[in-house]
């Protein structure tokens, strides 16, 4: 394994940015790739997708199959060289994807080839999958999604936690991701800090949300709450989290779900992944009114997406608890302290209490992830594709209203039903503009 | 800096256990040492102290000065080769001592020389300091102690926390201590696990405490509480903690305080250090009745030691808060989110809430540290030197009674005065044997 220090060298000497011709020549000499694509390299089709925020992404197709090839650039692709970002993120992404692939092989793309020097990974091409967020904007329903995503979260989080790992293995794992701080810093700044203060990169649907944005910049209860969440993100090494688990990092068909892009992975609070997902489902719900073509034409979708919020938490909790009951090989909660029937019963009560604490974290992080997408730098198409800005702002204001309550009154949300009930109430709230 | 992986090699090829002659020859060729000791190496006096639980400790004296030389053995000295322990602990101790020496130079021994290959460190000889625990058993009072130890704790903890460090620097620091898992494992087993179950190494003052020990092994509320503390120890990377901050790791005179032996150091919960200290002061208080020669002859000492418990927390909290107000250079609680007078006032309220949460942690860890010293493997002379076993067990039972309450009803202890009040009540409790 590459050490953290090596991986952090931002531009290893063998690194070069590949154009289409370079990539073709490079892949032609990579046996795992040629086996996958088949035929002659000269006839492979290679297309740079052009929609990565951070990286180059090529779709490569041959007679036998296809690949997605992702190469990290030494800067943020969307912004350019003025925003440098270390190539080491490709190393951490590969490490995380390997971990996830071991635990949930059907739910992530298979790795075909990884080149640390080029910060390049070739993966199974996901076809005909689409980015889930696009499907949600279109009002599509994914009946298999809850089962898949909760399996992904429960397994990747549980098996990297103190409930499954020895303390020594966990400390080594924490250290192996410690170098990924540039990516963590993006989260720390853009999610937990900038939306709550004047920051050049912030934007929102003006002029409608001007007042709300100003109120949030002055809401000190909210600033305390988000600072506590940030502290948890900085200091709670609970499990290997994906770190960016929104609906743009998930590719779906009616029957399949694949989680991609774990380059923000590190040992952090589990609630951050759960909250990221819940937040993005809730935003799909609030944005839905903005995509309504005829009155009620999104009703089935909205009912489904809110039910999915409910079920994502419930099924995740069930599966996590089930793993804990069956595969508790870690150093936390040693079984020897809970012997016999009485011990088992008491431990079960504590498991429920543990999940209740995790739920509280998830509620807080849900709120943080909503607020950053509406008032911070990075927005999402759920809202952005609502062309009428007043209509869009109405949807966004409703989401912000829920988020503010979730973050400041977290303790009053003791069940996922309380969250979806509050979401349903906010859905019909009319902001005063 | 030696990398974590290098330091973990348990027996580097240049390692050898030094006898007195080896050490003399080795030190004679070490300029920093010869400068400190003066004269001819042939005439230095070298004595192996023989009281280290884990390591060899030599006192070396020359005409100009003295040194303490500590060499790690590849096993636990007290037990022998049947209990291997990696030499890397000398590396982590040196790293921690360097950190502490930078932040609290008057409060730790100065390092004169460190040899990673030999797992050896030569330090300033502390004379006429004695191990504080011995002084407490003798009923001595240390008026300067509170001020010193709270400065040590506040500065070493604050400046390694997210309140002072950037997230990147903190992650690197966490990684640099991640390899110290063998020492952490000792804590995990001996403090958070074994005293609560049947374990070969457990011992207690039989037959008097047989029933109490059995009750604690069956007390499921206590097992849940200690498991939560263990989980915090495993997953809360709050600051670089000493990891073994009891009164046997502190050397004192009337006017000086030196903290030694930080080989258990790693990034863990701050409350563990605070709790270790409070627990050991409370044990000195409970043991005092057992050292009473004439009725009331320890009253002044007991009043002082309980007042010290009060003041240690209060002064620590004051100093930590003062550092936070003046030197908050870390990524947590960004000042830009708390602008103006209203922001400053709200942040101050949150600082108090932060300290209240830290206090809760400290109360729990205090309890864990008391219980392990009475029912686990490692006992302390506070109690052990009370020869009459019934008298000793009475003192121990009182301490256990307090500890049980502190751990299970932690939330009801909202101030240090509540803790000392409960201690005073337990001091006169008569166990039913």
From TrEMBL, chains A, B:
Domain of life from the UniProt record: Bacteria
Enzyme class: transferase
Transmembrane segments: none
PANTHER family tied to this protein: METHYLTHIORIBOSE KINASE
UniProt keyword ATP-binding present: yes
Entry keyword set: ATP-binding, Kinase, Nucleotide-binding, Transferase
Quaternary organization: Homodimer.
InterPro entries named among the record's database cross-references: Aminoglycoside_PTrfase, Kinase-like_dom_sf, Methylthioribose_kinase
Organism of provenance: Bradyrhizobium ontarionense
Residues covered by the Aminoglycoside phosphotransferase domain: 46-280
Family: Belongs to the methylthioribose kinase family.
Identification of the protein by name: S-methyl-5-thioribose kinase
Assigned EC number: 2.7.1.100
GO molecular function, one term: S-methyl-5-thioribose kinase activity
